[in-house]
Amino acid sequence: MSAVTTTAPSEGRIGLRANARHIGALVRRNALQIKQDPESMFDAVLMPVIFILLFVYVFGGAIAGKGNQEDYVNYVTPGLMAMMGINIAMAVGTGVNDDFKKGVMDRFRTMPIARSSVLLAKIVVEVGRMLIATTILLGMGFLLGMEIKTSLLDLLAAVGLSVVFGASLMWIFILLGLTMKTAQAVQGVAMLVLMPLQFGSSIFAPPTSMPGWLETFTDYNPLSNLADAARNLINGGPVAHSVWMTLAWAAGITLVTAPLAVARFRKKT
Amino acid sequence: MTRSDTNAVEVRGLVKHYGATKALDGVDLDVREGTVLGVLGPNGAGKTTLVRCLSTLIVPDAGTARVAGYDVVRQPRQLRRTIGLTGQYASVDEKLSGWENLYMIGRLLDLSRKDARRRADEMLERFSLTEAAKRPVMTYSGGMRRRLDLAASMIGRPAVLYLDEPTTGLDPRTRNEVWDEVQRMVAEGVTVLLTTQYMEEAERLAHELTVIDRGRVIAGGGVDELKAKVGGRTLRIRPVDPGHLPAMARALDDSGLTGVAGVTVVPDEGLLNVPILSDEQLTAVIGVLAARGFGIAHIDTHLPSLDEVFLAITGEKTSSAESDTIPEEVAA
Question: Which residues belong to any copy of the ABC transporter domain (chain B) (predicted)?
């Protein structure tokens, strides 16, 4: 009928290469959306700047002692890396919820592509945003006097670890985004869960300064594991336990929530 | 693809419930290959639910549906290769340009980069959107969006195209543009299932009609059969002198023109309403009036509204007025 050739098998299964191509086309879509609407990058660009300034200068003196803000930079920046990842992961939920209200999702779902590719493309783009936010955060950290006490490779490992953990959290927020009715509701619930997890961790202050029950809570909080791992990778210190715990959490969260999110996406009407 | 018959779409006993609401309550219909089936019904009749079942967006509770030989429930992947869908709401990405939308769809349909680029250019040209190619879709007019939507549905050269109220909310000129495009696609051999609330649209595009209400098929057949059933068009005549109205009505009654029965006079509007079944009758009616020397100031013809069609078929008004609570599209 035409010179245009289709490379996909006719029986309907979608091969790995075709799948990668579909995800690529959808990543391009998301990237073009950002280009069209640059304000959507404000969170990734401004949040790290505002947070590091706030924490170092407002709380840094109280936590590390007046005049010791520079010590606190080395403490809080790796913690903030963990927090950035989470905040960006949260945005995925509202994004997915929003996307679903648009007709274009109907088109995707009537096309011969794996339904997971729409979600995977979203995750690829958000990981990109996470890397941008982390780069800006580290840049600010260095400006404010942070030092790498180990090696560049350890720093990259810390970045990689927070991205992996953040990506696993995205599945939870995608699931939320697909389940809740409005984007505002998604944000509300996400904040409610995240605030205690973020502040009840070793991200901002050493848990030894907290009451016993809270210290116990922070010990089991995966955000503490991630913050400790990133901190010890950059500042030196024991990393084995916190790194493995973080990876275990990331794997566990993904294994449980990713299939649920994809199933939910399939069934959504 | 070998098929034992020539139906591109075969639906048998299709049922879809939303809680207590029976959106589809046992729908049967066929669309012959290369033709247009118009599915006519008021808001909430189940039209959109039908299209969503047939395009694998929702799974029916009971019944079967085959499209291009594929079962909608058991072979959704294969089916998605052969269909295109243009809904009431433009299913393109607002933030992307028209070209980027079409290129993306080409890539999702496994075209090579080169082919996807070429096909996007081709489709923009064909749907007269080349000038707007690089602009974000959010700057497009309603008609341009709908055309882009049709172009997007045509990228994959579908065998069967679903058009769900394709001109709802468009102005008359734009509506005509969309109709022209649909007719071109049909001329190229695409099978179309069209849902609409407008008799005019159904008459213009459809070869056959199925009327549905409250999830059930209440009438079906050729457009002419259905028109004969509901009385065809009404010729509205405004004489130069309203005082002639009674005499004109008498003249037509006496003329014995077959089918010209039930001439009514609307004195308030100074109008004579003459139901007609064919263009020949129209000519004959004018001939009779002219021969008697009545001056005519204005004539037009008027198609029965959906309400009038329903009245003729069921003796009831459309259900949409009383059952606004039945969701056409049940929010998830």
Answer: 9-239
DSSP of B218-256: EEEEEHHHHHHHHT-EEEEEEESSGGGHHHHHHHHHHHT
Q: Note the pLDDT tens digit of each residue in A253-262.
A: 999 999 999 8
Domain ranges of chain B: 7-225, 233-302
Burial-class residue B26 by CB neighbours within 10 Å (0-12, 13-18, 19+). Answer: middle
Interface ipTM above 0.90: no
A-B contacts at Cβ under 8 angstroms: 104
Answer yes or no: do B87 and A4 touch at CB < 8 A.
no
Residues 6 or more apart whose Cβ sits within 8 Å of residue A39 = none
Q: Please judge whether A107 and B332 are an interchain contact, meaning their C-beta atoms are less than 8 angstroms apart.
A: no
Second CATH level (architecture) for the domain B233-302: 2-Layer Sandwich (3.30)
CATH number for B7-225: choose from 1.10.730.10, 2.30.30.100, 3.90.1150.210, 3.40.50.300. 3.40.50.300
Task: Give the predicted TM-score (pTM) of the model.
Answer: 0.79
CB B160 within 8 A of CB B37: no
Closest-CA residue of chain B to A102: B91
Residues of chain A in Cβ contact (below 8 Å) with chain B: 1-2, 4-8, 10-14, 18, 21-22, 24-26, 28-29, 32-33, 36-37, 102-113, 181, 268-269
pLDDT 10s digits, A160-178: 999 999 999 999 999 988 8
